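Continuing the series of single-chain predictions for the mutant panel. This is the parent chain; the variants come on the following pages.
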Amino acid sequence: MKNALLFLSLSAGLAAPAMADLQLAQSKNCMACHAVDKKVIGPSFKDVAAKYKDDKGAVDMLAGKIVKGGSGVWGPVPMPANTQVSEADAKKLAAWVLQTK
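Parent structure:
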């Protein structure tokens, strides 16, 4: 019984950061244009993670695009600036997106 409780506690702890950052993405309105596993208006988070998986500067670059917006990388529809997102939250979101599998 103790082992089962320990396993459940550890499992919940591992899922908590992923859920917290999904909640952050939802609270910052990211999900209006993106989804974890499918293209909506913008690319899926899985596609973004795959594209930048070997780019060591991707967190900072994507955080900048989250706040300032961008265009031309994923097609003709530009990503608008999200000035309501702080730099710290943008970095959290970018790091989370890059870990999406």
